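Risk register update: the risk of archive-format incompatibility is retired. Evidence:
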Amino acid sequence: MWQEILPNTWESILSRIRSFDYSQKNAVLVPAAALGVGGMLVYWLTSRHKIKTIEMGDGWWGSGERPLNGKEDESIRPFKIETSDKEIEDLHRRLEQARYTPPLEGAAFHYGFNSSYLQKVVAYWRNQFDWRKQVEVLNKYPHFRTTIEGIDIHFIHVKPSYIPHGRAVQPLLMVHGWPGSFYEFYKIIPLLTEPARHSLNEGDVVFEVICPSIPGYGFSEAPHQKGFNTIATARIFHKLMNRLGFKEYYLQGGDWGSRITTNMAQMLPQSVKGLHLNVVFTSKQGLRMMISVMLGAYVPWLVGLTREDVRRMYPFIQKNIYDLLRESGYLHIQATKPDTAGCGLNDSPVGLAAYILEKFSTWTDKSFLHKDDGGLESKYTLDELLTNVMIYWVTSSIVSSMRFYKENISKDSLTADARVGVYVPTGIAAFPQELAHTPHTWAKEIFKNLITYSYMPRGGHFAAFEEPKLLAEDIMRFVRKVEQL
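Archived output:
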């Protein structure tokens, strides 16, 4: 039966198709084709403008397994830095028992921290440095701790004492790097929270500043699990800001703080009003990069470089290979086997000071390499430098801070955010003594909404610590422009 019906049915269908005139075909096919093409075009346009983000995810960095039913304590607890006679006596004993190797004649800082000058620093540390007084200085701003993803996060939160009429207070999260700490921001905080009092512009931009310690640094608990990188830090700091009641906020960072805040912008762009950086990491490589470098020294305008870019970048091999190799030996150690070197640093305050303060010499100004005292006291006081060292010493955090390199400089961590652009409004302060210079034309390939780019007149890697007023002015200029958009 089916053999008889099917042939007849097919013949009927075919005869109808043959009798379907051309105009009728067009009446149906053209709109259908237009609808299909239009749909594809709409899909292409919407997907083209869809911002790719880093997945936020979740994590657990506490000791042992994550509790199955345990709700995390989300309370924000006041915290105060304290010291004791026992802590100070132990420090003094270790300083007194230090051994030194005489420096080579005329070595200055070319072989690392000059041991002759180191003895002068240690003598000051033992006999004149007042840790109790510096603890009072550290406690002048409100400190807090809160538990996020199983570990205690330390931060300071400073609000303006006076708010001009009609002015909105802008929340600003500032993140430090290595071998710095939250203390780097102590000189810039009053400029940002009370700008009018410090004769900064019209006082039309006022901030409340939140400065957390990266987990494993200072008074933030160190992760107990492997794999804690900048993306995990970014997620934790977003949770911190949310816990403090902020839905939108500005970010600022240098060194690791630059990458952490950049990851925050890539992760939740809707929460980031603006991103300001004083260090830019770029993974720009390939033929285009090679052509840019080769032509830049001769016809910079052809590849988008300015005269100032040329002055800071060339001779390229010297400034971007030799100088960086000289300054990055620590990085290879910390990115491979940090615990080995960390053992000695965690046991010796003198070794710790030499290791940390050497970075505050040549990262502040490359020419300090030629000075017997590393030029340290031309930019900072010994009290300031030793207070930063003491934050690492009293918390035994040097090893966990060094581990941050191993967790981040791995194949997975380096590629996780490489293909995700930054679309939030961005400002860059390019300091002339930074370890490497990133020109505007390179930066805008990563930061798609670059609002300000400033060639700073002086200063190096530790911008907030060294040139707080310059940095504060640039942050304010950037935020003012963003608020006017």
